[in-house]
Design goal:
The complex is a heterodimer of chains A (62) and B (341). Chain A contains three helices and one strand; from the N terminus they run ααβα. Chain A has helices spanning 2-5, 23-39, 56-59; one strand at 52-53.
Chain lengths: 62, 341
């Protein structure tokens, strides 16, 4: 929106625009970086009940 | 359902981030590595001969937490003359060899392209070390902290000497340098795919990897130690399984919060005065020693407790400390377990 409304001229006085970056996103990024550094990369897990699975297709050699 | 009790909503929110962090980071690597490793896959974990006699009765999973050396666990296992199966993870393998304890199986999981090969002695030590202080910070074998070329050379020789025909339980997503290094040594490799999501779900990564490799899939619980337990339970079908070195936390007495990796962002998030909310404490039942955990370790802890509940089995925790206790976990001394209490 700001791009559409800015007009086609340069203002003489520059405005100080406050930083509106998302603190939560900053935290997530920093936490992610540190977490990945610490665990060496073994964390992938979303299945909480199944311990072992074998495809019937692979068992048949297909 | 995660087994998490008594943590703050803030902590819970942070922990919930971890699954997506791992998936975002790994989703492509897992499948790509599995495809690329296909030419190396000759045998799967289903081809492993069933353990016999005492090896079939019980197993010890050797994880890589600091309790392993603090509690002198490896020497105690060796001195006991334990005759059950021993499953080492990649990070404890060299330490086992140094202690004169030859594992029956070594399990490796992590797809990291430069770090994991170090556990087997890294032929490209210097280039893989560049810009990475992971080993300077790890707390298993302090010899690794020095990042010493000489130490790496000794490990190469040690693994070259013992690795030939050693059963290696290797994940299809293993990085190429681990595959090449272990093949060059002559490990006897048995492959598996990581069960990272429900294979019945649309777009399942697990199904994609299994379709590519035709391998059976095992749950990892997010960490190699848990994967080793799942292997002993489901592939070897061993009924009595103990874990050692599975701390899933830090010794409060000698590890300040600032020494943990996520201290900085967590402090910024909750403030210095509220740090206890994101580093929950646990008192180990057998020793009354206090440990604390962080979101990553706590997430691992929830995962293994959930898988344990799903398996309806009992896990004997012989770590002698840490945060792993709860339903399905029996804490017992390693000497007692080895004596077949």
């Amino acid at each position: 929106m700001s791009e559409l409304m800015k007009g086609n001229f340069e203002v003489k006085r520059k405005l100080d625009v406050p930083d509106v970056s998302d603190d939560s996103a900053d935290f997530k990024n920093e936490f992610k970086k540190k977490a990945l550094e610490s665990i060496g990369g073994s964390m992938v897990f979303v299945e909480r009940e199944m311990l072992f699975w074998e495809s019937t297709e692979s068992a048949d050699g297909e | 359902m995660m087994s998490h009790h008594g943590v703050s909503p803030e902590f819970q929110g942070i922990m919930d981030e971890i699954t997506s962090i791992g998936l975002d980071w790994h989703s492509e690597t897992l499948v790509e590595n599995s495809k690329r490793n296909k030419p190396f896959i000759a045998k799967s974990i289903k081809d492993i001969a069933s353990p016999q006699q005492k090896k079939a009765e019980s197993a010890i999973i050797i994880s890589a937490g600091p309790s392993l050396y603090k509690n002198n666990i490896l020497a105690r296992i060796k001195d006991s003359g334990y005759e059950g199966s021993i499953v080492a993870i990649d990070g404890s393998y060299v330490r086992c060899l140094k202690a004169g304890l030859i594992p029956d199986y070594v399990l490796t999981l992590d797809p990291h392209p430069t770090r994991i090969v170090r556990w087997f002695g890294d032929p490209d030590f210097e280039s893989n070390l560049e810009g990475d202080d992971y080993f300077s910070r790890q707390d298993l074998d302090i010899a690794f902290r020095n990042n010493s070329n000489e130490e790496n050379r000794r490990n190469i020789e040690l693994v070259n000497r013992h690795g030939k025909d050693q059963k290696l339980v290797i994940c299809s997503s293993a990085p190429m340098n681990v595959v090449e290094r272990t093949e060059a040594v002559g490990f006897d490799a048995y492959w598996w795919a990581p069960l990272v999501d429900n294979p019945g779900s649309p777009g399942s990564l697990t199904r994609a990897m299994v379709n590519e490799t035709k391998l059976p899939a095992m749950n990892t619980g997010g960490t190699v130690g848990t994967a080793a337990w799942v292997f002993a339970l489901t592939a070897l079908k061993i009924p009595r399984i103990a874990v050692v070195g599975m701390d899933l936390g830090y010794y409060k007495a000698d590890t300040g919060y600032q020494l943990t990796q996520t201290y900085g962002p967590l402090k910024d998030k909750v403030g210095e005065d509220n740090l206890k909310d994101v580093f929950p404490e646990f008192t180990y039942p057998d020793t009354d020693e206090v440990f604390y955990t962080d979101p990553t370790y706590y997430w691992y802890r929830c995962n293994i407790l959930d898988l344990l509940a799903a398996s309806k089995s009992t896990l004997y925790n012989c770590t002698g400390g840490g945060t792993l206790f709860g339903d399905g976990v029996v804490c017992v001394g390693i000497d007692e377990f080895c004596a077949g209490f």
